Every structure is written in structure tokens, then in C-alpha cells.
């Protein structure tokens, strides 16, 4: 049985459409192209099985094909029910990669796709949000012995891994790709900053300038979203639970206040905290008529959609990816993409050039685990600085830029404690 026959996808006839999108992304990912030149010849993952759970769209497909070209047998599933693109899933299945993913599966189907991916008995894992690793530890412990280690893409996933590690239950090394400088400085900040507003603007077709935007969370993703909102002409309020981050937001020129107060002023809300109940029933009660709610955190728990459903006296779909909720007093609140990741559920995710860097980190870190897993322990690990820097160097070279190198005298000076 070939990969297309093994796969579970919506419609294989969509494959040509998906391939066009993948070709466009591939043409704008020069760092992966450089890696492909080397890895497709060396085949360092020959004989290895790799399981991937990521947002299944065009840039992800380019990473999956790179890993396949490096010699691995690849099985892939989605990491969010609304971020899988059915044409991409079909194109990958046609290309020799086994795919278990459909757009908007039921919760039962989503879990089944994760388990089927794990049943490929992978030696290496790439995860986004921790669903694959959590399912492996909780529901498929008999498959743990096959796994050498893997990489995690997101803040949320790393929190889950740290919890597993703290309880002494993590059974293999996982590299925290999200925490690499080349990830959070660029992907989280510039990628999220642009793609969130791409998703919101595409979905609402409304102007941002002049509106009050409330950004919940001032991590790297929150910084990016706030910065782009300001650039689009919005007045920006930041809510935080961390005093240091709140101070930074203030020094960056944003207004800082608790969500209960911000809820009264906001025209548009974006949550990026990784936590649940950030916008809750008490906040809905004081929001303006017409307020728009969007989430850019990994899971759909940051906005309490259940509470919104219970409070509302009516709900209707007013536009693709917009659900309007009518409150008892007639006010209407608008929820984007069911409270799921607005940049992926209602958009195409981060720009290709940004994901080029992130997925180069994923590929290089996967090779690092493959080559060193026996001495890495059962831990959550930082990305080695050499890999982090290498990706940025590749990016600069691909864009025709060069930087200076330290002279031997400068190196000696920096390494010495003496004054002269």
C-alpha cells in the first residue's frame, strides 16, 4: 500500500491545487533550499521514521518534503482542527508522505489522526503544541521505546513538556525550538505580528486605524501583534500578569491596564497568553456593542467560548469565520474562527520567509537529536547556539547580506579580564 492509499485526507483530487501553493512557498524559502541541496545528497535520516504534528499548510509541507528528501519515512498530521488545508494534505499524500489530516475533523477524528501517526512507530518527532507527545505518553506508552527524541515548535508545547519533565515522566529528549533566538525574535514577533493581522483583516474587511486594540499577553507574539496594530493606526492597550512585561509594554508606548478595565474600551481583542479564561464571562458583560474577539494562542481556551454561548440569546454566522453573539441587552459581540488560532484558522499562517528560518531550525535540531540522542537524557533542551546562529547566517546569505568577523586581537580582548 502506498502513502496515498494509507493516508486519510479529504479529497485527493485537490492535490494539484495544493502543489501549486507548495511550489510558491518553496520558491520563497531559500534557507530550506540550501539545506535540501545538502541533505538530499547525504541522506542523514535514511532508514529513520519521523512523525510530524504541525499546522498543515504549504510551508509545513516544504519541511515535510525536506525531511523525506533527507531519507526519512514521514507521517504527518495536523496540530489544530481548523489549520489543516485539504489541498496541501492531498498533495503531500501524493508525494510519498503518509497523511492523517482533514480540515475541521471531529474531536474523535482529530485524536484518531494523532494515534494513527504514532502507530507509524516513529524514531523522531516534530510537535506543535504538545498534542503528539502528550498522546504518546498518555495513550500509547507501548510506542515510547521506539522514540529517540524530537523538537517542539511552540510556547504552549514547551509548557506541557516542562510539566512532563518536572514530574519525571518525559521519556526522551525534546529540543525547545520555540526558545531559539532565531524563532522567538522573528517567527513569534514578526511572523505572528503580520499573520494575525492578515487573518483579522481578511476575515473582517474592516479598518484598524482609529480603533482600540486590546492585546492580552506581551510575550514575543504579543509584542509583534501590538507593534503591527500600532503601525496600522490603532490605539493599543496591553494586559499582562507579569510586571516586567507590563513595564516593557508601557515603555514601548502602550497603555497597560487589567482586562476588566480594558474590556470596556476595546474594539478588537487579541489573546496571546497560552492560558485559559483570559477573556471570560465578566468581560463579555461590559464589552462594547460590535466588539471583535480573536485568539492567537495555540489552544481555543483563551476566550471562554462556552460562557459566551451560555450568555448569548442568539448566535449566527455573519461572515465566513465570524460568529455573532447577541447579548441579553442587545449588544453584539463577534468571535473570529471559533476562538481558534486566527492567523491559521482564518488565514495562511506566517509568511514563507519567516517559516523558512523556523523550519530550518526544526530540521537541523532534528538531525542534532538523531545524532546525539544517546547522550541527551530525558530532558527539555535548548537549541544549541551554533544551530541558532547558523540559521541566521544562512538567512543573511540568502538575502545577499554579510556581517563582520572579529579579528584575532578583538577575540583576545573579549576573552581577557585585563584592562589592556
From TrEMBL:
Its EC number is 3.13.2.1. InterPro entries: Adenosylhomocyst_ase-like_sf, Adenosylhomocysteinase-like, Ado_hCys_hydrolase_NAD-bd, NAD(P)-bd_dom_sf, S-Ado-L-homoCys_hydrolase_CS. The keyword Metal-binding does not apply. Residues 188-349 form the S-adenosyl-L-homocysteine hydrolase NAD binding domain. Its cofactor is NAD(+). SUPFAM superfamilies: Formate/glycerate dehydrogenase catalytic domain-like (SSF52283), NAD(P)-binding Rossmann-fold domains (SSF51735). Pfam families: AdoHcyase, AdoHcyase_NAD. GO terms for molecular function: adenosylhomocysteinase activity. It catalyses: S-adenosyl-L-homocysteine + H2O = L-homocysteine + adenosine. Keywords: Cytoplasm, Hydrolase, NAD, One-carbon metabolism. Binds 1 NAD(+) per subunit. It is an enzyme of class 3 (hydrolase). Pathway: Amino-acid biosynthesis; L-homocysteine biosynthesis; L-homocysteine from S-adenosyl-L-homocysteine: step 1/1. One of its GO terms (cellular component) is cytosol. GO terms for biological process: L-homocysteine biosynthetic process; one-carbon metabolic process; S-adenosylmethionine cycle. Substrate binds at residues 128, 153, 183, 187. Belongs to the adenosylhomocysteinase family. May play a key role in the regulation of the intracellular concentration of adenosylhomocysteine. This is Adenosylhomocysteinase. The gene is ahcY.
